[in-house]
Amino acid sequence: RKDDTLAIIFVTVLAVIIWIWSATRTEKEWLVGATLHFKAPEGSSSTITPELKPVSLTFKGPRGSIDTVEALCTQAISVPIASDDGDITLNVASIVNALDSIQSTGAEVITAEPNSLTLNVQTLVTVEASVQYSLPSIQVSNDVTIDPSTVSLQIPKSVRKELPEAISVTAVVSERVLAQLKPGIMHTELAVVQLPESLDGIGVLVEPNRVSLSFTIQSKTDKTTLPQVRVLVAAPAEDYGEYSVSLPVRIIPNVSIEADKELITLINSGKISVFAIVRLKSTDMEQRITSKLVATFLAILEDGTAQQIGATLEDPSLLDIALEIVPVAKPTQ
Questions:
Q1: Taking a C-beta distance cutoff of 8 angstroms, is the pair 206, 151 a contact?
Q2: What are the residue ranges in the chain where pLDDT is below 70?
Q3: Which backbone phi and psi does 65 adopt, to 5 degrees?
Q4: From the DSSP assignment, how many helices (H) and strands (E) are in the chain?
Q5: How far does Cα 201 stand from its chain's mean position?
Q6: CB-hemisphere CA count at 13 Å for 54?
Q7: Do residues 51 and 41 lie in contact, with contact meaning Cβ atoms separated by under 8 Å?
Q8: In this predicted model, what pLDDT tens digit does every residue of 72-90 receive, in sequence order?
Q9: DSSP 59-72
Q10: What is the distance between the alpha carbons of residues 28 and 107, in angstroms, rounded to a whole number?
Q11: d(CA 259, CA 253)
């Protein structure tokens, strides 16, 4: 009876082992979501776009292999890409099946969605760029120190050929940070390096991507948009005895201005007016020119003095003011 019990236990254990072995060796198909991470070879200066791409892969293999590959796909699958510059089209199933990490699982991809992918490979060249600064909503006294004053850019070789020899980037401190700083004190703040529009969104790398700005705030500034600004002509007084000047259009619409915060408050209240100034020389009058650009924008203060302010227009052509200059008829003797 004891021998029968041992035999039953042995047979049961053996049956379980055979069942487990059979279950792990039974092939099945399984759909798995994965992310492919395309990488240039080690030491290469190339970029690959897109760098990451989600795909749906149908694997076939023993149950144990499917479990292993499913766990592997919980993280991005690294796919090395060695190619010359330009576009390349890859078969997704083929490139995944060729990976050592996938082959070692014993499973293989039988279908993929999408079936193929097009990648763009670009070799990068290193360029040194000077750093300018942007401190919105403040006026500074003395110089602004930038450290470091240059950064390294890695730019696609094909793009570099179209760019000027000298390239600059802009270091920007956010208005939120600047609003918390007091005037009259030296401040040192980290600024984010921003690329010019021509280099934005094309895979340019910046090192370092932050620089230090040291500056002293003279005053806080503010912005506002005036629905219209009157045009005034300034010319030598003696010329008005010889010529009269009229303006077909006396108003410039929608002018955005920036000035000291207190001054902007007075402008918005209507206590101070802003004018666009066109300066004419004696030779302009003699030649009877038909247009001239606005020279400056002035806020006329309550005491009669003027303060220059910054101004921008969506349509800069409106700064070219039409003129009608005619000689003054002299009385007959």
A1: yes
A2: 1-11, 13-26, 331-333
A3: -65, -40
A4: 8, 21
A5: 7
A6: 3
A7: no
A8: 999 999 998 877 778 899 9
A9: EEEEHHHHHHHHHH
A10: 10
A11: 18
